[in-house]
Each structure stands twice: as C-alpha cells, then as structure tokens.
From TrEMBL:
<dbReference type="InterPro" id="IPR036217">
    <property type="entry name" value="MethylDNA_cys_MeTrfase_DNAb"/>
</dbReference>
<keyword id="KW-0963">Cytoplasm</keyword>
<comment type="function">
    <text>Involved in the cellular defense against the biological effects of O6-methylguanine (O6-MeG) and O4-methylthymine (O4-MeT) in DNA. Repairs the methylated nucleobase in DNA by stoichiometrically transferring the methyl group to a cysteine residue in the enzyme. This is a suicide reaction: the enzyme is irreversibly inactivated.</text>
</comment>
<dbReference type="InterPro" id="IPR023546">
    <property type="entry name" value="MGMT"/>
</dbReference>
<dbReference type="GO" id="GO:0003908">
    <property type="term" value="F:methylated-DNA-[protein]-cysteine S-methyltransferase activity"/>
</dbReference>
<keyword id="KW-0489">Methyltransferase</keyword>
<dbReference type="GO" id="GO:0032259">
    <property type="term" value="P:methylation"/>
</dbReference>
<dbReference type="InterPro" id="IPR014048">
    <property type="entry name" value="MethylDNA_cys_MeTrfase_DNA-bd"/>
</dbReference>
<keyword id="KW-0227">DNA damage</keyword>
<dbReference type="InterPro" id="IPR036388">
    <property type="entry name" value="WH-like_DNA-bd_sf"/>
</dbReference>
<dbReference type="Pfam" id="PF02870">
    <property type="entry name" value="Methyltransf_1N"/>
</dbReference>
<keyword id="KW-0808">Transferase</keyword>
<dbReference type="GO" id="GO:0006307">
    <property type="term" value="P:DNA alkylation repair"/>
</dbReference>
<dbReference type="InterPro" id="IPR001497">
    <property type="entry name" value="MethylDNA_cys_MeTrfase_AS"/>
</dbReference>
<dbReference type="InterPro" id="IPR008332">
    <property type="entry name" value="MethylG_MeTrfase_N"/>
</dbReference>
<feature type="active site" description="Nucleophile; methyl group acceptor">
    <location>
        <position position="127"/>
    </location>
</feature>
<keyword id="KW-0234">DNA repair</keyword>
Length: 158
C-alpha cells in the first residue's frame, strides 16, 4: 500500500531574499530561494521554529554548523556527494574536482556539479562551498550573488 507523506512549508525573509522551507513533519526536506511551495503543501509555522531559528543565526554569523534532522533522496551518487558536502568546514571551499576525489570518483567533476544542482537543502547542505578549480565561483542554483554572499559571510576571500 502506498503511503503519501504530507508536505509542510513556511517562508523566511532575510538578506538573501525569501527562503522557502519544506518538511515532512519530522525532517527538513527543502530550502530554496524565491520559490513557490508545492501545491499540496500545508503552511505550518510551528514545525519550522527550530529550522528558522538556526537559519537566522547562521545568516547573522552566529552559527557555524546546523543541527537539524534532514531528509532528501537521490541516487546513491548524489547522496554520497551531499554527505561529503556536509564535511566541508565552515569558511572553507573545495573544488568540484576535489569533491569528486573525496567520494572516490576522481573523473566525475561534472557529475558532482550536477549533484550539487540537485541538492534540495541549500545552505544547510553547503553546496555553496564548492567552487571551480581556478578559484572562481563556478555555478549555484540560488544565483551567484547569493553564493558570493554566503562565502563572504563565512570569511572566504576570493
């Protein structure tokens, strides 16, 4: 029997514009910039109190690591990339090529970039900490100005 999971959402305004947060009621399942909630989602502010509190603290430079229950699903490769993203320390960056090496796929830089683009939990799963091998920003689904802002918040000079 198929069990449907209810989706909850709330929005938060801040220095990066409007942020949409989604949850399955137990886990953070999404964090997107300037996005619309899923049509079947239910607005539920209480569910997001802890998520919003930690996000505000991070954006104010008061929090370096999130302690949130999260869930996102993808291919085994994507999930390895997302797990490794969480190992990149606050204030540090690595290249797409280095991330590919760290997951044991040294020739998969482009696939790593694609997996980053499929990350549904921006900021918390810090895909913004991955940059091009030449030190430029590379890509970012949330627009490059936000990636630059996040890296500057973390004290990264580039």
């Amino acid at each position: 029997m198929l069990t449907l999971t209810k989706t909850y959402y709330d929005t938060l305004s801040g220095p990066l514009g409007d942020v949409l947060l989604t949850s399955d009621g137990e886990h953070l399942t999404g964090l997107w910039f300037a996005a619309e909630p899923p049509a079947d989602a239910v607005r539920e502010r209480a569910t997001f109190k802890s998520y919003a509190s930690q996000l505000r603290a991070y954006l104010a430079g008061e929090l370096r690591a999130f302690d949130l229950p999260m869930r996102q699903s993808g291919t085994p490769f994507q999930e390895r990339v997302w797990t490794e993203l969480q190992a990149i320390p606050y204030g540090e960056t690595i290249s797409y090529a280095e991330l590919a090496r760290r997951i044991g796929q040294p020739t998969a830089s482009r696939a790593v970039g694609s997996a980053n683009g499929r990350n549904n939990i921006s900021i918390v799963v810090p895909c913004h900490r991955v940059i091009a091998a030449d030190g430029t920003l590379g890509g970012y689904g949330g627009e490059l100005w936000r990636k630059e802002w996040l890296l500057k918040l973390e004290g990264v000079n580039f």
